[in-house]
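User: quick one - fold this with fe (ii) ion bound?
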Amino acid sequence: MEFEKVAVNPRAIAAGQRLEQTLNRLVRGRDRLLGALRLGGRRADYDDLAYTFHGGPGEGMRRRHYDKSLRLLWKGEAEAPWSSFHDCTRLEQQVMDHALQGMDEEQRDAHRRLSLPEFRQLLDREYTRREKQALVAVLSAIGHGEAYAWLVSADLLGQVKSTGAKAALTMQVLEEAKHFVVLRELVHAFDVPVPRLSAWEYMLMESVLKADGMDKLFGMNVLVEGIALGVFGALSHLPGLEILRLFHLDESRHTGLPLNYLGEFPLGFWGRHDPRSRVRRMGMVAPAIPLVFHLEEDLAELGIDAFEFGASVIRKIGQLAQRAGFFLPIPIPALVRLLDLSFNSYCWATRPDYTFRDLSRADCTRGRRERAVEREVFGDGSLAVA
Ligand SMILES: [Fe+2]
Ligand SMILES: [Fe+2]
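Assistant: Sure. Structure tokens for the protein plus fe (ii) ion:
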């Protein structure tokens, strides 16, 4: 390549460079001093000399979360054609059109892209008004949670170390934004009033948003995501709610994030055992317990026993927390047994002919693929999501 060089004054250039070097030493020296005195200093946790964020490149996190999220990226327009989303590329639209053309009449009918009125008719055909209210109560509880997940993951983006972990959290921010806006349209399609956050969920979500650092990662990516995974797994087989499979897959990646991150940046002995951290974590878990009672009536309408659901979700979350080293003031297996006993006692006192059973051993996740995904997340094997 031949460039036509521009004439410059070397002395002026050298003077400018000297000025910049002096200023560079001054501003960085000032920020180092302020940082050492804990009075501020450089705000960005970025190392421009190494060209990476503090904590290093973190290629493993990047591959397991950022790359995988992009590989599995889904679009509202393709998955919920009745929605107002127009987010497919021209190529994706062409692929969808070609796939439809290649089908016979019967297949085309099955894959027909429903308009919003047709989708509403489908929901009216499949569910009574009371069942629609119950579905909206459960889905909007998660929908409000998605708003918090969006805010919390954006906060966490500034708090995790390494370039790979920041790339992973960036994808989580994008996915939570998508979950919030897509789920909002799905909930509105039911055409019944949308309830506010319950007091229990309000307390839970606010405490997670106000938590710091790794407490926030526990509150969101273990506790809240674990509950969301349970709800999506329990509902994704229902007519009109097939899109929840994709939410379930995204949330499984989010619940896998703490273990992958802590594999690179361990909590350390004090981080795991500090009594104040244990109490703070318990403070986040506590409102989730009355939330199970709050959802009892609506889940029952959908054929789901809230206490089987709650106990099994708490068992799964407990496994994840235990493996990550997010301990609580009492041993997690003891907490699961205590809740199992409390839920059983409540059911025995309030339901006719109730017999005690192992509620936490239940599994309310219905779909075969969703169960396989959860085995990968909660099972004993590695959490590496290749
Ligand atoms: Fe989400
Ligand atoms: Fe999530």
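One thing worth noting: Residues 129-157 form the longest helix (29 residues).
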